[in-house]
Amino acid sequence: MQVEPLAIREIVLVTPARFSDERGFFSETYNLARMREAGITPEFVQDNHSLSRQRGVVRGLHCQVAPYPQGKLVRCTRGAIFDVAVDIRAGSATYGKWVGAELSEANWSQLWIPPGFLHGFCTLTEDTEVQYKCTDVWNRECERAVSWNSAEIGIEWPIAEHEAVLSDKDRQAPGFAEAAGWFRL
Ligand SMILES: Cc1cn([C@H]2C[C@H](O)[C@@H](COP(=O)(O)OP(=O)(O)O[C@H]3O[C@@H](C)C(=O)[C@@H](O)[C@H]3O)O2)c(=O)[nH]c1=O
Q1: Which value does ipTM take for this structure?
Q2: Any catalytic annotation for residue 132?
Q3: What are the structural domains of the chain?
Q4: Is the pTM of the predicted complex or chain greater than 0.90?
Q5: Where does the record place the site Participates in a stacking interaction with the thymidine ring of dTDP-4-oxo-6-deoxyglucose (predicted)?
C-alpha cells in the first residue's frame, strides 16, 4: 500500500495494491494493520455509499461537531471525484487551509480525513460512486455545512461554478467566516 501525507500532514492519501488478471482485479481495500502503519488508527463504525448521476455534483463542505465529530476514509469506486478537506481545528497552524486529491476507480486511492476537518467533493464523471468509512455515526443535530465556494477558503475546484449541482442544504450553507463559530460547539 502506498502512503502519501499531503500538505496538511494529517491528511493522508493511501493506495492499496490491486492485482489484475484476466478475470478482473482483487484488492484489500481496508486492512487494519496496514492502515495503522499508515497512521490511520481510529475504529470505523459506519460505512457510507453515495451515487451522483451527473458530472459537477458537489457534496459538502460538511462536518459534524462535538460530541459526534467524524473522521472519514474516502474512496471512489466508480468514476472520479476531486476530494477536499479543510482544517477547522481551533488553534491549528493550518486552520482554514484546504488540501485536495483526485480519487478514482482508475487510481484506486483513498483519502484519510481525521475529525476536525470539513469534507466535500465534486464529481468529475457521470454515475460516480463514493464509499467512505466513518469513525462515528451520523447525527443530524451535529451536522454542519459550509459553502463549497467560500471565498475565505478559496478551494481551486476543477469544475466551473455554473456546472455545480448542489442539494438545497448545500446551496444555502453559510460562508466559512460566518460558520466558524460552530466549530467550537
Ligand atoms: C450523511 C447521512 C445522511 N443520511 C440521510 C439524510 C438524508 O435524508 C440523506 C442525504 O443526506 P445528505 O444530503 O446530507 O448527503 P450528502 O450530501 O452526500 O452528505 C455527505 O456529504 C459528504 C461530503 C460527507 O462527508 C458525509 O459525511 C455527508 O455529509 O441521507 C443518513 O441516513 N445517514 C448519514 O450518515
Answers
A1: 0.98
A2: yes
A3: 2-179 (2.60.120.10)
A4: yes
A5: 138
